[in-house]
Please model this.
Amino acid sequence: MTATVATDADEGEAIGRFASLQLPVYRRLLVGGTFSFLSMMIATTARGWLAFDLTGTNTALGGVMIAFGIASIFMIPLGGVLADRFPKRRVLLVTAGLQALVSLLLATAAVTDVIAYWMLIVASVVQGAVISMLGPARLAFIAEAVDRDRLTNGILLSQSTLQLTRVVGPALAGVLIGVRTVGVGGVYYIAAACAVGGFVSTIGLPEGRPIRQPSRSPMADLLDGVRYVRANPSTAHLLVLSYLVVLIGFPYIAFLPVMAEDIFDAGAAGYGLLTTAGAVGALATSLALADVAATRVERFQSGAAIGFGVTLLLFGLSPVFAVALLVSVVVGATSASFQSLNNSLVLTRTPVEYHGRIQSLLMLGFSGFGLAALPFGLIADAVGLRETLVAMGALVTVVSIVSVVIRVRRAPRPAARM
Model:
């Protein structure tokens, strides 16, 4: 693939909040990704509603989430290898096609009243596989579609559309499920239509062929990516920091229903508001940071990591629901900023031929934080949820500060003047 490259800008200057949108390839990627993520959010909401409607148990809800998490954890390394071995357009077309097919089949099953719980488990497994292939291929494609000066801008704009679908998708699905003429079957048809939109947008992209000839064995490619990380301390540092911040801090999302119901007595509506507040904060900060200068990305990434830890701690200490709602906006903003800026740093420091595999290694942490919620849940049951959230926030803060100290110590010192 020959990327559309813009004129290089001074690394110390902001390049414009919507600079990447000037590039036709990037615009197609953004539109296709928006359709795909919207389809995913709508289908996820419908699947959760159906799981509870069919069984009447919270265990069933947990079942579909675990199926998604396990599938994605096992598939993510393969997804990174596929992104580096095959044309990225082909990978994106396959994922969009799978999304459309699964949603269409579930829509038909719901409309004809033959829907069964096992179908939702299968759909969760397929969606876990889809996001495992979609994520590395799409981020690697973005890195090829824009020049390095615009990479952070491209990732943050892409992240903003993801956050927008987090707000719009569940809200749209929730409203339409309750409309008799639409119902859950109609919602799944809408999800299928969005996936088709992503498929059509992707057709016009360049092939995105691998930069170098892959080895004969996918496992050899995967091990080569791991060896690259081990040989590059800067990349390894970013990966380790991401794993620690995500696995320690991000499980707070699993406890939002309990915070809303048991701590603040705000019920399901309160849970919805807390979730939306976090997504709104993430959307706002993604747009606000989209024009950050390349020389300031590392500083902002460190600040976002520390800010996430501090605000998570404050969230656990929030005395009333209104305060928790305001803090939740900042928690969403700092967590999303850390994720996007860390991705940008990793991609800019990694050769293009490794982008898919390195991104898959990053995604492992984001797939695993749902499983990490279990031990934190056990601790919360033993000592209290507020105390657990405060401890999680404090640990993230300490880890982030230690990371900054290590980075500063490793930084090359200026040569002494004679």
